[in-house]
Write a structure and sequence with these properties.
Helices cover 39% and strands 24% of the residues. By secondary structure, it is of the alpha/beta class. The strands form two sheets. Strands 6-7-8-3-9-10 form a six-stranded mixed sheet, sandwiched between helices. A four-stranded antiparallel sheet has the order 2-1-4-5, with helices on one face. Bound molecules: adenosine-5'-triphosphate. Pfam families: ABC_tran, BCA_ABC_TP_C.
C-alpha cells in the first residue's frame, strides 16, 4: 500500500516448539517513528532480524515500498534503503569519525574499502561526510579517532554511518542500550531532529525515550502484537497496562 513504507503481513517464526513471532502484522508510514516495545524475550530482536534479513520468517510477507522483500538477502535490502543501526559494531576505532562516515559513503557509492588512501584524499567525499556529522551534532568531533568518542557520541556516529547509505527506513535496535541519562537525552534530541526525514522502526526498552519519540507504538507480548496506537492510546490501553506497563505506570 502506498501509505506505508514497510508492511509486515502475518509474519511467523518459531525456534523449535517456541513461537517467537506470532502472526505479526504492522506498518510503518513514511516519516513516522514507529516503536516496538515489549518485555524481555517478547521477540523484538527476532522481529528486527526478519525485517533486516538476517533471519528468515517461517510464514508471512514483508513489503518494502510495496515490493516483496521477504526472501531478499540483507545486502539487497540495505541497497533498497532499509538500514539497520545499533547492536552491530560498525565503527572503526582507529579511524576518525569523518573517515568512518566517508568509508560508508564510499561503500554506498559502490567502491571497495581497499582504496582507503583515495578516500582520505577525496575532498567531495570528506565534505559530504562532514555534512552528515554536522546533522548529528558531531561536527566538532569529526577529526578525532572514533575510538575516543564517548559512548553516546559513538551511538550518534553509528547513526551517521547508517545515514550515509541514504536509507528510506532506519531500523533502530535499542539505540539507548548502555547509555546514561544525559546521553539518552542527547540521542532523543538527535533522533527528534531527524524526525520526518526518515521513517524509523524503533525497538527500545527506555520508555521515556519511546514515549518522547514515537508517533505510534506497537506492543509485543509472547511474540504477538497486542496493541498498536499513539503513545496516548497505548498509555491508556487496559491490556497493555496489564501485560506490560502496569508496574511502571503504578
Ligand atoms: N537462536 C535462538 N534459538 C532458540 N531460541 C531463541 C533464539 N533466539 C531467541 N530465542 C528465544 O526467542 C525468544 C525471543 O527472543 P528475542 O531475543 O527476539 O526477544 P527480545 O524481545 O528481543 O528480548 P530482549 O528484550 O531481552 O532483547 C526468547 O525466549 C529467546 O530465548
Amino acid at each position: 500500500m502506498a501509505d506505508s513504507i514497510l508492511r509486515l503481513e502475518a509474519l511467523e517464526k518459531s525456534y523449535g516448539a517456541l513461537l517467537v513471532t506470532d502472526r505479526v502484522s504492522l506498518d510503518v508510514r513514511p516519516g513516522e517513528i514507529h516503536a516496538v516495545i515489549g518485555p524481555n524475550g517478547a521477540g523484538k530482536t527476532t522481529l528486527i532480524g526478519q525485517i533486516s534479513g538476517s533471519l528468515q520468517p517461517d510464514a508471512g510477507r514483508i513489503l518494502f515500498e510495496g515490493r516483496g522483500v521477504t526472501h531478499l538477502p540483507m545486502h539487497a535490502r540495505a541497497r533498497a534503503g532499509l538500514a539497520r543501526s545499533f547492536q552491530i559494531t560498525t565503527i572503526l576505532p582507529d579511524f576518525t569519525a569523518r573517515q568512518n562516515v566517508a568509508l560508508a559513503l564510499q561503500a554506498h557509492q559502490g567502491h571497495s574499502f581497499r582504496f582507503f588512501r583515495d578516500v582520505a584524499k577525496d575532498e567531495a567525499l570528506n565534505e559530504a561526510a562532514g555534512r552528515v556529522l554536522a546533522d548529528l551534532s558531531l561536527a566538532s568531533r569529526a577529526d578525532i579517532p572514533a575510538g575516543v568518542l564517548s559512548h553516546g557520541e559513538k551511538r550518534s556516529l553509528e547513526l551517521a554511518i547508517a545515514l550515509a547509505t541514504a536509507p528510506k527506513l532506519l531500523l533502530l535496535d535499542e539505540p539507548m542500550a548502555g547509555t546514561g541519562r544525559e546521553e539518552t537525552d542527547r540521542l532523543v534530541e538527535v533522533l527528534s531532529s531527524l524526525k520526518g526525514r526518515y521513517a524509523m522502526l524503533l525497538v527500545e526498552h527506555d520508555m521515556s525515550a519511546v514515549f518522547a519519540l514515537a508517533d505510534r507504538i506497537s506492543v509485543l507480548v509472547y511474540g504477538a502484537i497486542i496493541a498498536t496506537g499513539t503513545p496516548e492510546e497505548i498509555r491508556n490501553d487496559a491490556r497493555v497496562r496489564e501485560a506490560y506497563l502496569g508496574e511502571e505506570a503504578a
